[in-house]
Amino acid sequence: MSKLETNTIDTVSGTTNLVVGSTNSSTVTFENGSPTGHMYPAFHAELSATQEPSNDTATVVQFNRETLDTDNAYDNSSNYRFTPQVAGKYFVYSQILNNPSSSNNIQQARINIRKNGSNVSNYQFSSSTNPVDEIGVGSQVIVDLNGSSDYVDVIGTQAVSSGTNRFSGGTTSDTYFGAYRIGA
C-alpha cells in the first residue's frame, strides 16, 4: 500500500466532480472527522412545551427547541422553518403527538410538510365514530431546495369532539421536525 500526502486535491478546470477509484471498488476513509458538506446542512428541532391550536384549524407547529442546526438555517423563534443556503435534495421528516385535554375525543389529526407554503407531504388520521385518546402522526418526503429562498415547515391540524386541542411537547418530545441534505 502506498501513501499520498498533499495539501489540496482539486478538480480539473471546467469540471465539478472529483472521482476517486473509477475502475475498482473504492472506499474513502476520513481518519479525523467527517467530510465537509456531507449530509449538511441539517437540523432537528422539537416542541418544548404543549402548543394549543384552535380546533380543526391548520396551524404552524412551533418547533422551538433545536437539538441540531449545523448551518444556522432553522428559525426556531418566529417562522419555524428551515431555509438551507445550500442547494440540493433534502430528506425532511416530522411527527406530531396529538394529546388533547379530554380522553377519547380525537376525531382527526393531520400533518402537512410544506415547501414554500404548498403541501408536499401529508398524513391524516380520521375517525368520527371511534375517536382516540392520543395519536402520533408523521410524514417524510424528499424535496429539492434551491439554496437561497426555498423553505420547509410543518402544519398540524387536530379536530376534537370536546376539550382543549394540544400538540404534545416537553423535555422528551415526541413532536419533532428535521431535515438533512442527501445530495445535489
Walk me through the structure.
The protein has 184 residues and is mainly β. The chain has a single domain (42-183), classed as Jelly Rolls. Helix content is 0%, strand content 38%. It contains no helices and 9 strands. The strands form 2 sheets. It has a 5-stranded antiparallel β-sheet with strand order 3-1-9-4-7, with no helix packed on it. It has a 4-stranded antiparallel β-sheet with strand order 2-8-5-6, with no helix packed on it. A hairpin with a 2-residue loop joins strand 5 (106-115) and strand 6 (118-126). The radius of gyration is 21 Å and the shape is elongated.
What is the fold named in CATH at topology level? Jelly Rolls
Radius of gyration from CA coordinates: 21 Å
Inertia-based shape: elongated
Q: What letter string, H or E per element, gives the SSE order?
A: EEEEEEEEE
| Percentage of β-strand residues | 35-45%
Q: What is the tally of beta strands? A: 9
Number of helices: 0
CATH level 1 class label: Mainly Beta
- Give the mean pLDDT: 88
Question: In terms of structural class, how would the helical and strand content be classed?
Answer: mainly beta
Specify the biggest β-sheet. 5 strands, antiparallel
Provide the helix percentage: under 10%
- At CATH level 2, the architecture is Sandwich
Biggest sheet, spatial arrangement of strands: 3-1-9-4-7
Tally of discrete structural domains: 1
How far apart lie the N and C ends? Answer: 33 Å
Low-confidence stretches: none
